[in-house]
Amino acid sequence: MSGAARATLPASLGRPDHRVEPSLTDTLCTRCGLCCDGSLFAEVELSGPAEATGLEILGLEIEDGDATHPLLQQPCTALQGRLCGIYPHRPECCRTFECRLLQGVRRGAVSIERAGEHIAEAHQRIARVTGLLAQLGRRDPRLPLKERCAEALAREPSANPALNRQRAELEAAMAAVERWIRRRFMGGTARQ
Ligand code: SF4
Ligand code: SF4
To answer: What is the pTM of this model?
Structure first.
């Protein structure tokens, strides 16, 4: 994040990853947030119990995982809009993460404008899924997107054809989101 942009934001807000040019995270990550909001990940592995304890004190949701690598639950409760609310204290996995899209921009394979379009399209596709979830009465945003869909689709087929149609639409929309995320965002540096 550039000094100029940092000055326009509360000091505690920012985005993960400081291995790319600050202006790049300003331009792209601040309008994305998909690696924190449960769209890309259901959980991320922390470096150890000490890091987990510090994050718990800050109010983040941690699960035990295995003994040495606790898990930060997603959607991350530190996310404020599309910005990290604990930026100076974010864990190592967030400091070092780069998604495939960000890496592509950094090495010049994708333009910033094109990357912005990919992010906007991801948000549009996800909004379609969350809209269908809301129609099916699944408005709780605290679960990762894929889990919310799985819960909505796990019910027995209904006698109501319209409801079954909505579920089929949800299944297709979520499959499209997963394909888009895999193609555009996954395969960068490891986060789990
Ligand atoms: S998914 Fe990529 S572009 Fe989006 S916030 Fe995370 S690192 Fe930035
Ligand atoms: S602490 Fe949470 S909001 Fe901040 S960068 Fe990590 S996952 Fe994102």
So the answer is: 0.84
